[in-house]
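[Meeting: bench + compute handoff]

Bench side (C.D.) handed over the final construct sequence. Compute side (W.E.) agreed to return the predicted structure before the next meeting so the bench team could plan truncations. Sequence as handed over:
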Amino acid sequence: MNRADAAAGGARAVDGPLRLEVIIASIRPQRLAPVVADWFVRTARARPEFETGIIDLLHTPLPTDLSDAPETERFRQRLADADAFVAVTSEYNHGYPASLKTALDSAKHEWRAKPIGFVSYGGLSGGLRAVEQLRQVVAEIHMVSVRESVSFHRARKQFDADGNTGDGAAIDAADRMLSQLAWWGNALAAARVSEPYPG
């Protein structure tokens, strides 16, 4: 892979797969997040458009007061090197986890002019209320949220013992979302190189 670094915030030309970072939001004990995220990461890694990494917020102890720390700097560098993101999020009390808000607030320029998709899970709502709130937040930090999202309703019943799902709607949505992320990822990477983002 040959990548030419440019301005701050991850502006560069991409020759090869896009760097996709999958962010696992929930840090609760007995969380379902790893099951959902592992399924999605396997799906993404089957696509030649992406080189896929995982940022598990349980293992990324960002300061909740948003102060600078070595972990924060490492986190920001991962974001700067990425071309696209997917947040795997649960829904708690009609909202998304505080750990994800801390992550979003812990960086600034590194997010800008990059696409993000969402994989959500929960009860009857499938985490969709969390996603609707997140779309507002990511717009404020100059990201592009892709139209398609993946949602698992009654999520614990949707995966077998091997972490696979027979949810056809989710499988189809993941494919469409990844195609949109690839399109936006390439388009925005080229735009960031040709002209610095005015934000």
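W.E. noted at the follow-up: The mean pLDDT is 93. C.D. will use this when planning the next construct.
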